[in-house]
């Protein structure tokens, strides 16, 4: 009664009513019902059987634990205030009326001093206090506790550096240097501030993010906090979650994820809607990933959005964000299963094709900026865009190799994704050739036209010598593709021989000018090894030409048999002449390969020079 005004007034009123009742001769109290309706927060009840009075506190803020701490304070027990108990005690003191007007240095003023001087100065303590306020609404909000904690967190986040927010690392980084690890050793023992924020409810967390945006907190920090919250709240968000940050299962269990798919879908769409747009623009202009969020986590969000059937706007926003980080993605990230009954393929190829299209749109914007601001300072930006394009080219080639085994993948879909990237995205087409070879092996029932279309995505001029050697011996490739590969391989061999000869001449000239025996001998050894390699390549080429000759001869015999069986030539005229057979063979090859060349059979034997016999000169008589 000395500390709580509510209890003091309740008991005093009860005693006064009892005195009035005794004075009036035992008449029943007429205002008891009115008092109970007015004093709904603290109610005094009388148990006639036990002849006792009880004070009932319905919906007391903080529960029995908060009331016990408040009662100990009333009886002079020293309180050990913590960030988790400060807000419940403040609300309990407000409910009991424990203000300084009733008693000096009461619980309300003491809790307010602790919150202002201790809790709000430490962001992690402010997050814990904010978490404790979730069970105290709406009283905690009306007292200003929620807004004070939110403002303190946002202000501290805005004043901190992006790399060491609140003195702790923003995200786990296995590649951090030893110096950074020693500097953040104290923070490594506990959870990061992302994990602390992830414990909040969705409404409270959204309020914190809105305050951070108003304070001008960096978009990378906001995005990282949103992704961490989604990972903590949605179970099974990322297949690689157990490899990122460690202990993903325990964190998910502590976060009390929503139970229903509808709640998870609402949470996911809220997180996606609050992702800042600045990270997309900055990443698209530089061609590199900006921010603490890894590409695999964004792909995990997209995979979860497909499972939960999120809205098209949310998926489109995620795909555009992933496109900005596509150069940093891995092949496993792109393997998004197809969850729609309308799609026959095992993986969602259409989604990857859209992401590639968004990436190219961002690259076009970056090129326009570079054209408008052409200077020496823009050279690193253009170089970064080029590296990003090459990385995406290697990524898509590897992705095509993974999905090529899908029996339901149509040739048109395979070719569309292969042709989605420009020519500058690939220095060599070896990865694309590998994907084509896997696709042809997994789809043996393709027609010749479909095989030629699939093989046509490979540019023979961009194949290395090893890839050309494999393609020339590949029985799954159409004959036209094999001939083109052999032609380009011959060009590569000629260029290699020319470079070797020029290198030998340059080495000999350099050794003669400098007079150094060691350098000249080294150059000669290198040239000799190069000649040996070229000789081996020429031998392998000769063997392949022998095989092509045998196939050509067998095809010619087969054509002759078909002509004889078809009755194209009459029996009385005898067998067709050699010139007619050659003409039919040439016309067939012309239709087959779309080119014209003289009809002749290749001969791989070594050429010999035969002297032409001279005619005797006839002298004319004068």
Automatic annotation (TrEMBL):
<comment type="similarity">
    <text>Belongs to the NPH3 family.</text>
</comment>
<protein>
    <recommendedName>
        <fullName>NPH3 domain-containing protein</fullName>
    </recommendedName>
</protein>
<feature type="region of interest" description="Disordered">
    <location>
        <begin position="1"/>
        <end position="38"/>
    </location>
</feature>
<feature type="compositionally biased region" description="Basic and acidic residues">
    <location>
        <begin position="7"/>
        <end position="25"/>
    </location>
</feature>
<dbReference type="Pfam" id="PF03000">
    <property type="entry name" value="NPH3"/>
</dbReference>
<feature type="compositionally biased region" description="Acidic residues">
    <location>
        <begin position="26"/>
        <end position="38"/>
    </location>
</feature>
<dbReference type="InterPro" id="IPR043454">
    <property type="entry name" value="NPH3/RPT2-like"/>
</dbReference>
<feature type="region of interest" description="Disordered">
    <location>
        <begin position="562"/>
        <end position="583"/>
    </location>
</feature>
<dbReference type="InterPro" id="IPR027356">
    <property type="entry name" value="NPH3_dom"/>
</dbReference>
<feature type="domain" description="NPH3">
    <location>
        <begin position="191"/>
        <end position="492"/>
    </location>
</feature>
<keyword id="KW-0833">Ubl conjugation pathway</keyword>
<feature type="region of interest" description="Disordered">
    <location>
        <begin position="240"/>
        <end position="260"/>
    </location>
</feature>
């Amino acid at each position: 009664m000395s500390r709580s005004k509510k209890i003091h007034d309740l008991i005093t009123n009860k005693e006064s009513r009892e005195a009035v009742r005794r004075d009036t001769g035992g008449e029943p109290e007429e205002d008891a019902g009115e008092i109970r309706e007015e004093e709904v927060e603290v109610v005094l009840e009388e148990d006639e059987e036990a002849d006792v009075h009880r004070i009932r506190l319905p919906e007391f803020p903080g529960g029995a634990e908060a009331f016990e701490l408040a009662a100990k304070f009333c009886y002079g027990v020293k309180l050990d205030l913590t960030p988790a108990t400060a807000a419940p005690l403040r609300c309990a003191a407000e409910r009991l009326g424990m203000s300084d007007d009733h008693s000096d240095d009461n619980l309300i003023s003491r809790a307010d001093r602790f919150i202002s001087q201790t809790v709000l100065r430490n962001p992690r303590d402010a997050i814990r206090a904010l978490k404790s306020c979730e069970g105290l609404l709406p009283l905690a909000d009306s007292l200003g506790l929620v807004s004070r904690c939110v403002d303190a967190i946002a202000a501290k986040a805005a004043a901190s550096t992006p790399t060491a927010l609140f003195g702790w690392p923003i995200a786990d980084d296995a590649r951090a240097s030893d110096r950074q690890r020693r500097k953040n050793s104290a923070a490594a023992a506990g959870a990061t501030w992302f994990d602390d924020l992830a414990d909040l409810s969705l409404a409270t967390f959204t309020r914190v993010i809105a305050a951070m945006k108003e304070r001008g907190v960096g978009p990378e920090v906001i995005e990282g906090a949103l992704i961490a919250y989604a990972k903590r709240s949605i179970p099974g968000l990322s297949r690689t979650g157990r490899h990122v940050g460690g202990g993903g299962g325990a964190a998910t269990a502590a976060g009390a994820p929503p139970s229903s798919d509808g709640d998870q879908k609402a949470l996911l769409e809220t997180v996606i809607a609050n992702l800042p747009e600045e990270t997309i623009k900055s990443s698209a202009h530089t061609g590199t990933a900006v921010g603490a969020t890894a590409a695999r986590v964004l792909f995990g969000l997209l995979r979860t959005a497909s499972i939960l059937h999120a809205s098209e706007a949310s998926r489109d926003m995620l795909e555009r964000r992933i496109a900005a980080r596509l150069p940093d993605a891995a092949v496993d990230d792109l393997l998004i299963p197809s969850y729609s009954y309308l799609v026959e393929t095992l993986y969602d190829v259409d989604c990857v094709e859209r992401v590639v299209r968004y990436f190219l749109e961002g690259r076009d914007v970056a090129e326009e900026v570079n054209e408008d601001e052409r200077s020496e300072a823009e050279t690193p930006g253009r170089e970064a865009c080029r590296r990003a394009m090459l990385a995406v080219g290697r990524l898509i080639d590897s992705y095509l190799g993974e999905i090529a085994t899908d029996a339901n993948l149509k040739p048109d879909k395979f070719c569309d994704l292969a042709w989605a990237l420009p020519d500058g995205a690939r220095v060599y087409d070896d990865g694309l050739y590998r994907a084509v070879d896997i696709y042809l092996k997994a789809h043996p029932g393709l027609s010749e036209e479909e095989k030629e279309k699939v093989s046509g995505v490979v540019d023979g001029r961009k194949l290395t010598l090893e890839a050309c050697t494999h393609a020339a011996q590949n029985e799954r490739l159409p004959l036209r593709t094999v001939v083109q590969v052999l032609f380009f391989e011959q060009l590569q061999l000629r260029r290699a021989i020319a470079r070797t000869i020029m290198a030998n001449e340059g080495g000999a000239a350099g050794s003669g000018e400098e007079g150094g025996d060691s350098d000249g001998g080294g150059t000669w050894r290198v040239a000799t090894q190069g000649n040996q390699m070229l000789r081996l390549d020429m031998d392998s080429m000769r063997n392949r030409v022998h095989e092509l000759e045998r196939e050509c001869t067998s095809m010619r015999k087969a054509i002759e048999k078909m002509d004889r069986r078809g009755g194209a030539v009459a029996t009385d005229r005898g067998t067709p002449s050699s010139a007619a057979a050659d003409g039919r063979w040439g016309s067939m090859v012309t239709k087959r390969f779309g080119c014209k060349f003289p009809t002749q059979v290749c001969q791989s034997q070594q050429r010999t020079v035969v002297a032409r016999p001279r005619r005797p000169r006839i002298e004319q008589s004068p």
